[in-house]
Amino acid sequence: GPSDQVVPGNALVVDKSLPFTQLGHFGNSFLSRFECSRCNCPVLEGLTLIDTPGVLAGEKQRIKRGYEFEVVVKWFADRVDMILLLFDVSKLDISDEFRRVILAARGNDHKIHIVLNKADGVTTQQLMRSYGALMWSLGKVIDTPEVSRVYVGSFWDEPLKNENLRELFEQEENDLYTLIAQLPRTAAVRKVNDLIKRARLAKVHAFLLDHLYSNMPTFFGHAKEQERMIKSLPSIYSEIAQQRSLPLGDFPDPRMMQQLLAPLDFSTFKPLDPQKLEKLEHLLTIDLPKLLQIIPEEQARVSVSPAAVSQVMGAPTPFAVMKVGGASEQSVYQAQWLRPPDVAEYEAEFAQLQPRDGKITGEQAKEKMVESHLPSTVLHRIWALADTDGDGLFTQPEYALAMHLIKMKLSGQDLPIALPPEMLPDDLRGLEGAT
């Protein structure tokens, strides 16, 4: 949004410019706990992050939510582009409610990605055991023959506690950030895919309701026949699939349909409309394939090159990954950091790196900067801030500035989005942005 604001749930569902109007039917118990935070941040352009409340253990806590948590989760799961399941390395158990949440997302398995967080808090041997335990637990819940991909890392900007795993964490973060960075480029294909899935489901529903309606008796025994058909729904699925040449995989879960059909009167259903069915077939066989052919042309017209995606934070640095952490929120910096570094303090250290023509390369600087144990995403941002002329090399004042920013981060301060002018050493004033 243009400005930072928090919009409460009841106001959110009446705003037709946002995709949340359908959430109104979940009632005030849900809407009183639902809110939207908007902020003016370039990194979030075209991106919406949905954060769920903590998943509880125990029936008492589940009932006290006051709304059907799993149904809300399913509503979002059907509409989002990516689902991230977060596990802490020290909390690998899957509670009953978490199990129900995962099952509620069934049908969207291709969107699910699993993250094992805080992995730097254990040794390499302990991490292997934790990873194995997580995969074993997930295997009992996610009922698919394919192995789920788990991204292992430490997704924060504090120093790593286990430096031996730095390379693994960077590779895993790189894969996950790349996936997130590519979401806008593949969103159109996913939307068409969801439309195809809904159209096929609508087709199956139409045949099912027509079958139930046409098999109802004309005069007597409605209730008894309806009860019989509900109980034999799986065999009815097979019968319809064989008659209409439909794959059984397109049919909805029979247990869910049995619950939905139980209170309904089948005699009130309408017979199948051949004209509407013909239009649906035209959509599936002609219109949607044409749309899929157009999408690559549109993507090529507005596409971002892989090189540009890989350098979201600007020019290449020795710490770059495909997509870095992005801008952190603006914080109040302590006065001691809003000043230039003491360049002379780093003179001997800079000389030990053997500069040529008064400059050192990224590889030379990297040797010293990684001693801070900060993640590469953070060191990438520090490099981008300190390399004021953007030439990919460090002069002594730029090196001093980088060391100053590292100390600033290690003291618990957030890095600035853009370098404040008052932090520039005298030798660099007027040079920022020069090439």
TrEMBL record:
Picking any one GO biological process from the record gives: endosomal transport
**How does this protein sit in the membrane?**
Peripheral membrane protein
What the entry lists under SUPFAM superfamilies is as follows: EF-hand, P-loop containing nucleoside triphosphate hydrolases
Q: Start and end of every EH domain?
A: 342-430
Please tell me where this protein is predominantly located. membrane
Q: Which GO terms describe its molecular function?
A: calcium ion binding; GTP binding
Localization of this protein: Endosome membrane
Question: What does UniProt give as GO cellular component?
Answer: plasma membrane; recycling endosome membrane
**Domain Dynamin-type G, which positions?**
1-185
Every copy of the EF-hand domain together lies at 374-409
Q: Any idea what this protein is called?
A: Calmodulin
